[in-house]
């Protein structure tokens, strides 16, 4: 057994697939058996249809015998002189008379006795006088049997079944024979293109007619026969829709009259239904057994691939710690060993790339920060120098103390980020220096959401915005005092869903040249007059995603520069460049 397992484990993957295909071929053989049963199903269905057609022809022959007997009796009666004279008298007398009625009664009986299908016989003249074996009754039940409603009919016509106007408890199918007197002779003819002189109406009993064309039934299928005259149903049809029925039709002795059989599919082919049940049971057994066997074989063959899939998922999540040892010496074993080796190589390269990126971020952030600091230092020292020259040593001393605190924050422990609260305090110190220099009383406010006070941003990111607010809002070329009653600068920080915003708003009268501001955002120099906007934008892009700048200006009321951004969920809020490289 061990030798067999070793032999199988050493087989190439193609050989394993070949074994699986052999099993599939076996299942195909079972499918061929199902095809054979399907072929038998079709053959049996065809044979059953042939039997149904033969049965339909027998029903048609039985019906034709009765119809032929009725037809012969009508012809025989129509040629009798007494019948013709009775017709003539009925046409001449404007109202019904007893002699005519008595004469008609004997002919009605002769015709009615010709077939058990006949319920009664009647005559209607062109004066709409009805001669009937029954007392006068409504002629509008089921079918309207008045002369005006029948005047368009010619020769022999069958009307759809309905309630018998002379026996309301029963239903009947009318046969209407249109007759004309042939000139002044003693003969009658079928009306072909003229209005009929009289109509001979033969009411067939619907129940007797249904029994005639539907008995006996079949033990193999359920069917319903009906009559069609010129495509119009004369008897009730099967209630099922056409899609649930199989229909056949055959002509009868009467021109335009057809006998139609409707077979319900649900009761069709009982033997085939039995064969289908056997086939389904067999298929379920084969499918169940085959599925279990295929499952075992496929799991056995694809287990190396399952192991490789697990390796890939663990590598994606970073949880792959121990190398998976290959179980077989075939191609899958080679792949697993190669993936182990490749994974270790990738991990080593990723560590190296991460270290390089960390150094790159540190260098870039430091470079951008240093672009700001010399500018601030230059302006501040110039202010202190002017204070000393002008003899305001106390002011100069305060400014030096404030400036020292300012530098202490900027150079604090070499950190790259600070909180919004610390940055706000940093801006307050800077504004204090500028108020002393310009002799202004610019107030600084904050509109920071409480939960964002400890939100970390790049250090000194708001200082260029505050400096621009002073320069473009309150400082004039002649160093005049402010031109607004209460000059102010507001630092804002908001959050709306997953978007954050920070910005500086002032009420200076000079306003912001929006076109120049947007130009400065895309320039690396300060030639546009807006100090460090490009620097601020680039530093924010180092820490956040989808950074956008928005500039608006209403001089003397609201001048705003706002930056909006989102946080990479995989990175989180910044806590220094080291956090970015993790």
Strand content: 15-25%
Shape: elongated
CATH class of the domain at 350-581: Alpha Beta
Question: End-to-end span in angstroms?
Answer: 53 Å
CATH architecture of the domain at 350-581: 2-Layer Sandwich
Whole-number mean pLDDT: 78
Number of helices: 14
- CATH homologous superfamily descriptor of the domain at 350-581: Histidine kinase-like ATPase, C-terminal domain
Give the topology.
Blueprint lengths: L1 H9 L2 H66 L2 H12 L5 H15 L5 E8 L4 E2 L15 H4 L5 E3 L3 E2 L7 E11 L6 E3 L7 E8 H9 L8 E7 L2 E2 L11 E7 L5 E8 L5 H48 L13 H59 L3 H18 L6 E3 H19 L4 E6 L7 E3 L4 H11 L14 E9 L2 E8 L7 H8 L11 H11 L1 E10 L3 E9 L10 H5 L1
Parallel strand pairs: 13-15
Antiparallel strand pairs: 1-2, 1-7, 3-5, 4-5, 5-6, 5-7, 8-9, 8-11, 10-11, 12-14, 15-16, 16-18, 17-18
Helix pairs in contact: 2-4, 2-7, 3-4, 7-8, 8-9, 8-10, 8-13, 9-10, 10-11
Structure in words:
The chain has 582 residues and is an alpha+beta fold. Among the domains are: 79-211, Beta-Lactamase (2-Layer Sandwich); 350-581, Histidine kinase-like ATPase, C-terminal domain (Heat Shock Protein 90). Helix content is 51%, strand content 19%. The chain is built from 14 helices and 18 strands. It has helices at residues 2-10, 13-78, 81-92, 98-112, 147-150, 206-214, 270-317, 331-389, 393-410, 420-438, 463-473, 514-521, 533-543, 577-581; strands at residues 118-125, 130-131, 156-158, 162-163, 171-181, 188-190, 198-205, 223-229, 232-233, 245-251, 257-264, 417-419, 443-448, 456-458, 488-496, 499-506, 545-554, 558-566. Strands 1, 2, 3, 4, 5, 6 and 7 form a 7-stranded antiparallel β-sheet that branches. A hairpin with a 6-residue loop joins β5 (171-181) and β6. α2 (13-78) packs antiparallel against α7 (270-317) and α8 (331-389) packs antiparallel against α9. The protein is elongated and about 155 Å long.
């Amino acid at each position: 057994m061990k030798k067999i397992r070793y032999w199988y484990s050493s087989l190439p993957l193609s050989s394993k697939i070949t074994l699986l295909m052999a099993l599939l071929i076996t299942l195909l053989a079972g499918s061929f058996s199902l095809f054979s049963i399907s072929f038998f199903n079709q053959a049996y269905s065809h044979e059953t249809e042939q039997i149904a057609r033969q049965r339909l022809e027998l029903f048609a022959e039985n019906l034709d015998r009765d119809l032929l007997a009725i037809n012969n009796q009508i012809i025989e009666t129509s040629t009798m002189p007494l019948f013709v004279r009775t017709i003539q008298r009925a046409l001449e007398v404007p109202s019904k008379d007893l002699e005519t009625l008595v004469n008609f009664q004997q002919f009605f009986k002769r015709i009615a006795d010709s077939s058990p299908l006949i319920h009664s016989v009647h005559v209607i003249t062109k004066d709409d006088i009805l001669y009937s074996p029954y007392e006068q009754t409504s002629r509008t039940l089921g079918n309207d049997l008045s002369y005006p409603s029948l005047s368009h009919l010619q020769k022999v016509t069958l009307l759809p079944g309905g309630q018998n106007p002379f026996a309301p408890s029963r239903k009947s199918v009318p046969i209407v024979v249109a007759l004309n007197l042939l000139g002044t002779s003693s003969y009658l003819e079928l009306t072909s293109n003229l209005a009929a002189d009289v109509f001979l109406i033969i009411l067939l009993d619907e129940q007797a007619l249904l029994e005639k064309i539907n008995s006996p039934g079949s033990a193999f299928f359920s069917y319903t026969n009906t009559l069609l005259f010129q495509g119009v149903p004369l008897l009730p049809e099967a209630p099922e829709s056409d899609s649930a029925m199989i229909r056949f039709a055959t002509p009868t002795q009467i021109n335009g009259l057809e006998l139609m059989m409707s077979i319900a599919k649900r009761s069709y082919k009982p033997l085939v239904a039995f064969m289908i049940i056997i086939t389904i049971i067999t298929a379920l057994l084969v499918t169940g057994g085959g599925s279990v066997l295929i499952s075992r074989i496929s799991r056995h063959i694809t287990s190396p691939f399952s192991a490789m899939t697990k390796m890939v998922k663990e590598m994606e999540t970073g949880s792959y710690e121990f190398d998976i040892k290959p179980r077989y010496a075939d191609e899958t074993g080679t792949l697993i060993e190669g993936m182990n080796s490749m994974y270790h190589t990738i991990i080593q390269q990723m560590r190296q790339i991460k270290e390089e990126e960390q150094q790159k971020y540190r260098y870039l952030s430091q470079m951008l920060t240093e672009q700001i600091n010399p500018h601030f230092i230059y302006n501040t020292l110039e202010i202190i120098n002017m204070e000393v020259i002008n003899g305001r040593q106390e002011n100069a001393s305060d400014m030096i103390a404030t400036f020292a605190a300012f530098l202490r924050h900027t150079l604090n422990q070499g950190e790259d980020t600070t909180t919004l609260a610390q940055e706000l305090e940093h801006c307050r110190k800077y504004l204090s220096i500028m108020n002393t220099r310009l002799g202004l009383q610019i107030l600084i406010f904050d509109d920071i959401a409480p939960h964002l006070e400890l939100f970390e941003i790049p250090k000194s990111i708001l200082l260029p915005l505050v400096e621009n607010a002073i320069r473009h809002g309150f400082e004039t070329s002649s160093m005049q005092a402010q031109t607004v009653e209460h000059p102010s600068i507001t630092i804002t920080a908001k959050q709306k869903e997953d978007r954050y915003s920070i910005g500086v708003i002032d009420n200076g009268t000079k306003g912001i040249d929006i076109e120049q501001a947007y130009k400065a955002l895309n320039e690396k120099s300060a030639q546009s007059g807006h100090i460090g906007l490009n620097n601020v934008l680039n530093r924010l892009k180092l820490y956040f995603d989808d950074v956008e700048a928005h500039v608006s200006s209403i001089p003397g009321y609201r001048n705003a520069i706002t930056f909006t951004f989102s946080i990479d969920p995989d990175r989180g809020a910044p806590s220094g460049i080291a956090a970015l490289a993790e």
